[in-house]
Amino acid sequence: MNRDISLISCAGSLPENQLSISCEKIPSNVFSAGNLPPSGHRQLWRLNKKENITRLIENSLVTALQQINMNVKELDSIIVNLVWPGNILYEEIILLARALNISCPVIPVSLGTAGGMTALELGWNQFASKNCNNVAVIAACNYAHWFSPDDPVRSLLSDGAACAILSREPGMHLVHSHTIQTYNYAPLQFDVHGEYIKYTKESGEFIFKHLPETIYDCCYQLCREAGKEISDIRYFHIYDPTHWVREVSENALKVDGGKIFTIFDKYGSLGPAQNLFALMELGSKEYISENDLVVLFGFGPSATATSILLRWSNIPFSIQNVQVD
């Protein structure tokens, strides 16, 4: 894998529709942990129509490029992960390509919530070609709309899109990545009518029981292969689609809780876009310094888990609320 590739710009797009949820008043769901009850409030961001995710994707791409005075004609490829596309043709990508008159290859990645980090890894791999200079990686989520309106899991879910630009130019250096399989976790299922997606209580319990081992294995192997120790990492963002991930990650990695960065209370679960939103939130903090090491860990049950090591550098970031509905 090319060692001279950097992330040079990142932008996120959220719908204007914001919900504030009192955690004490919501019913438990299949991901609830009885010994780690939620507290306080969380913010969720929702589209009225799941089809409008294309507008958020477009805005994040255009903004990420504008921040570094680039346009789509300078991209050699675009990698897109969406949870979930409306159909097998990934019609959202077709609409995006038409709207922006995109001529470079646009490659879909279908790997659930793990797809954001997989897309970043795949985007990095594009630079194996000497003719590749700039790649856009997009991760987006509209999966609240794929769950039944009365499913308590919806109280965790938001809609949004994020875009990262990778380049041979200097920026936030991509150091190493490591991927493991999560085939032993239960997959999502359709309900009896085939209309909505659901998790079973047993699959939620399995995640709570086995996720710590997955976090440790993936992050430890990443650091070992990169010649680093867990203690060398300034911040970890562990994919946090629910409130208890921070404490579980702290215990799994045996690090101080201050090293586990979480955004769940502010954004809910943005699926595959979660890690990129966390990276942008880290950029707004004063307590991260040039050359600090950061690990992003993405996870999808019955798919993969991918951890990526980055060397921090200040680059353009922005998160916008977009009127799309």
TrEMBL record:
A Pfam family name for this chain? ACP_syn_III_C
Keyword set, alphabetical order: Acyltransferase, Transferase
InterPro entries attached here? Answer: ACP_syn_III_C (IPR013747), Thiolase-like (IPR016039)
Q: Would the keyword DNA repair turn up in this protein's UniProt record?
A: no
Where is the Beta-ketoacyl-[acyl-carrier-protein] synthase III C-terminal domain positioned along the sequence?
223-312
What SUPFAM superfamilies would the database entry show? Thiolase-like
Q: Which residues form a coiled coil?
A: none
Record GO terms (molecular function): acyltransferase activity
Q: Name one GO biological process term.
A: secondary metabolite biosynthetic process
- Asked if the Swiss-Prot or TrEMBL record annotates the protein with the keyword Transmembrane helix, the reply is no
Q: What is this protein called?
A: Beta-ketoacyl-[acyl-carrier-protein] synthase III C-terminal domain-containing protein
